[in-house]
Amino acid sequence: MKYKAPLFLLAVLLGSQFLNAQQPAMSATTGLGPGNTFTLFITFQDPMPKIDGISCGFNLVGPPKPGQKEMNQVLNCTGAFKKIDDVHFSAPVTIPAGVAEGNYQLVRIDVDMDSANHRYENANLPTLAPVAVTNPENLKFSPIKKLETKP
């Protein structure tokens, strides 16, 4: 009888962990717009004590919406990375002005170490939910009416 409560608690904890593992990946970075910043957290499998720099790139998934074709369709890490410990690092990403609205998928992480650079991309990147960016701005470029030269 005295073991029922601890066993029940253990079962609830294990069950909740299993349910959480089954949930689809969700992004904490949804609905961001120009001027907003989010942080990319990177966890390496093995210690990386000599990292000199980290950069990253996100690309717009699919075509831009009408009126945004000429807008920027890339997000990049924008500031100095932070070393939390030898395995955990973070890098800020600021949404620039003039960025197209849509979902942005992480496509690369570059790591600089001892004057060498290693790019993580494709199968070398763990799955990360896209970052949703909103921007209601639309651009309309007027046709050029006339050109001329003068001496």
Question: Your description of this structure?
Answer:
This protein is mainly β. The chain has one helix and eight strands; from the N terminus they run H-E-E-E-E-E-E-E-E. It has one helix spanning 4-22; strands at residues 37-43, 51-60, 74-76, 82-83, 88-94, 102-113, 116-121, 131-133. Strands 2, 3, 6, 7 and 8 form a five-stranded antiparallel beta sheet that branches. It has a three-stranded antiparallel beta sheet with strand order 1-5-4, with no helix packed on it. The longest helix is centred in the first third of the chain and has 19 residues, at 4-22. It starts with a helix and ends in an 18-residue tail after the last strand.
In what range is the share of β-strand residues? Answer: 25-35%
- State the CATH topology of the domain at 31-133: Immunoglobulin-like
Shape: elongated
Rg value: 22 Å
Q: What is the distance, rounded to the nearest whole angstrom, between the alpha carbons of the first and last residues?
A: 102 Å
Q: Write down the secondary-structure element order.
A: HEEEEEEEE
Low-pLDDT regions: 3-27
Mean pLDDT: 84
CATH architecture of the domain at 31-133: Sandwich
**Name of the CATH class of the domain at 31-133:** Mainly Beta
The description of the largest β-sheet is: 5 strands, antiparallel
Q: Roughly what percent helix?
A: 10-25%
Sheet/helix structural class: mainly beta
Q: How many separate helices?
A: 1
Let me know the number of strands: 8
Features of the shown structure:
151 residues; Immunoglobulin-like; 3-stranded antiparallel β-sheet; 1 helix; 13% helix; elongated; disordered N terminus
